[in-house]
Amino acid sequence: MQLIRCPWCGPREEVEFHYGGQAHVAYPDDPAALTDEQWARYVFFRDNPKGAFAERWSHSAGCRRWFNAVRDTRTYRFLAVYKPGEARPEVAS
Amino acid sequence: MADTLHRSPVLRHREDAFARLPEGLEIVAEPDVALADLRVPEGAVASATGVVGVALPLEPNTWVARPGGQVVWLGPDEWLVSDADERPEALEAALRAAVAPHDGAAVDVSAQRTAVRLRGRHARALLATGCALDLHPSVFGAGRSAQTTLGLVGVVLLALDDRGEDYRILVRPSFAGYLADWLLDAAVEFEPPGPAAAL
User: Fold this and answer.
1) Chain B within 8 Å of A13 (Cβ-Cβ)?
2) Side-chain half-sphere CA neighbours of B179 within 13 A
3) What integer best gives the mean pLDDT of chain B?
4) What is the pLDDT of residues B141-152, one digit of tens each?
5) Is B43 left (phi over 0), alpha (psi -120 to 50) or beta?
6) Are B147 and B156 in contact (CB under 8 A)?
């Protein structure tokens, strides 16, 4: 089984983690000002790259903390993990 | 005082089976104690030291002993404080009074987990049949803890010695029966060879 490195707990089995979708999707500054289409784009539309993708993950069976990871969507390999609030690291996929 | 918690011991129907475990394995359902979930923001960690009695462990996946119990690291700003001598509401109130001015929180979670003690020279091998972590004492010795899965159950695992022969498993009471049955089943392979013992 693939191991995912929790920024706090270290390498743990993949089944301990929960996927949380694309990372770095900023909440709109003024949600009430958005049109329905703009709101729908914020809520439902996500990138779907082939290659490195920044995602949110939660160590749900361990420390239950959220963190971000850059994963290669072609190979499922984790290229980097980093804590929330930190900038996305530059990684070569 | 453990007897301040009036709860039926969830594992009392397994005690006969625990008594028949093979040599080198011992399972004891520990008395329930007061447990409090403590949240303290980074930077205010020292505010809890007075009530807890020891400095909160800051290294992930560790625990330290405190007067009457232990403090387990659960997250970068979260700890589990146990106390066998205090009433749960008193423990909660004392912790809350200490950390609330620093935006911390303390919540009584005494009913959330029950403790199972696993001892014996086969203890580590038994755990290894259902836990993916490296439990060798060189990396999981006394003072280490882990929140992980054992069998199919989420547990908090505490290493109590440096020989891999003494562990405390904190498990949700509703899963405790399953975990006990799982441990008893896993223990079968440590039976001495010979005619199969009646389970």
Assistant:
1) yes
2) 29
3) 92
4) 999 999 999 999
5) left
6) yes
Domain enclosing residue A68, as ranges: 3-82
Lowest mean pLDDT among B20-29, B49-58, B90-99, B190-199: B190-199
Q: How many domains does chain A have?
A: 1
Residue A18 maps to a domain: yes
The DSSP code sequence of chain B is -GGGS----TTGGGHHHHHTPPTT-EEEEPPP-EEEEEE--TT-GGGGHHHHSSPPP-SSSBEEEETTEEEEEEETTEEEEEESSS-HHHHHHHHHHHHGGGT-EEEE-TTT-EEEEEESTTHHHHHHTT--S---TTTS-TTBEEEEEETTEEEEEEE-SSSS-EEEEEE-HHHHHHHHHHHHHHGGGGSPSSSPPP-
User: Two tokens at B151?
Assistant: 């069998």
**CB pair distance less than 8 Å for B75 and A64:** yes
DSSP-derived 3-state class of residue A92 = coil
Give the model's pLDDT for residue B181.
95
CATH number for the domain that contains residue A61: 3.30.2270.10
Q: Determine, yes or no, domain membership for A28.
A: yes
A93 in a structural domain:
no
CB contact under 8 A, B146 and A9: yes
Supply the ipTM of this predicted assembly.
0.88
- Does A9 contact chain B (CB < 8 Å)? yes
User: Distance (Å) from the C-alpha of residue B72 to the closest C-alpha of chain A?
Assistant: 11
- Return the closest-CA partner of residue B95 out of B85, B81, B84: B81
Is B129's Cβ below 8 Å from some Cβ in A? no
Q: What residue ranges define each of the domains in chain B, with the CATH number in brackets?
A: 7-32+112-189 (3.30.1360.120), 33-109 (3.30.70.1520)
Per-residue pLDDT at A90 = 87
